[in-house]
């Protein structure tokens, strides 16, 4: 998603001494900022981190920042999806609105940072469909495409997703700086 920027990307695998970072913030921004700051402080390099999840309107925005562990200890994608589907059981499609959210933080040593956000509006389907993707992708339906995120090939998902939107904003921000 950052093709053409000339930026060399490294991952945490390139820095094995960075400690595990506990995501204990109360917002996507707090979690992304903590991760990006910790890595930048440890490496002395600019760092990019995100936090993302799904927010379901009927559930008051849950699972939100708890998306990965929504079904409790030992949470898996399948268990999380089953829990959401059971909580929405009997609810008509028009009340199953949801959005995937992504907050990216680009943190530079010295404390300056920029935030880029993306949101993908959709619905929670009635059953899992598709084998591509992960997390809530099999139950998240894009209303324009009439497919779940797990039914979308990566080329399409990387154009419409919450993460793609946030990365486009980051890329535009980097281009504007020259």
Description:
The protein has 178 residues and is of the alpha+beta class. The protein has a single domain (46-177), classed as Maf protein, CATH 3.90.950.10. It has 4 helices and 5 strands. A 5-stranded antiparallel sheet has the order 1-2-3-4-5. Helix 3 packs across helix 4 (162-177). The longest helix has 16 residues, at 28-43. The chain starts with 27 loop residues before the first helix and ends with a helix. The model has no long low-confidence stretch (mean pLDDT 94).
How are the secondary structure elements laid out?
Layout: H1 28-43, E1 47-56, H2 77-87, E2 97-107, E3 113-124, E4 140-142, E5 147-148, H3 154-160, H4 162-177
Antiparallel strand pairs: 1-2, 2-3, 3-4, 4-5
Approximate shape: globular
Radius of gyration: 17 Å
Q: Give the N-to-C terminal Cα separation.
A: 18 Å
User: What integer is the average pLDDT?
Assistant: 94
How much of the polypeptide forms β-strand, as a percent range? 15-25%
Main pleated-sheet profile? 5 strands, antiparallel
Our count of helices gives 4
Strand order of the largest sheet: 1-2-3-4-5
Residue ranges: pLDDT <50 for 5 or more in a row?
A: none
CATH second-level architecture? Alpha-Beta Complex
């Amino acid at each position: 998603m950052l093709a053409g920027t000339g930026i060399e990307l490294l991952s945490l695998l390139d820095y094995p001494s960075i400690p595990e970072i506990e995501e204990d913030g109360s917002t996507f921004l707090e979690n992304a900022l903590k991760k990006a700051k910790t890595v930048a402080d440890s490496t002395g390099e600019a760092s990019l981190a995100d936090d993302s999840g799904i927010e379901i309107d009927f559930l008051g925005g849950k699972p939100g920042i708890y998306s990965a562990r929504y079904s409790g200890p030992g949470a898996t994608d399948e268990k999380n999806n089953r829990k959401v589907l059971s909580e929405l059981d009997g609810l008509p499609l028009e009340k199953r609105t949801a959005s995937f959210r992504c907050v990216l933080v680009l943190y530079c040593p010295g404390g300056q940072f920029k935030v880029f956000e993306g949101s993908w509006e959709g619905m929670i389907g009635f059953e899992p469909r598709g084998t591509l993707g992960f997390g809530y992708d099999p139950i998240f339906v894009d209303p324009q495409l009439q497919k779940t995120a797990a039914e979308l090939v990566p080329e399409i998902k990387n154009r419409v997703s919450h993460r793609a939107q946030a990365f486009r904003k980051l890329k535009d921000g980097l281009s504007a700086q020259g």
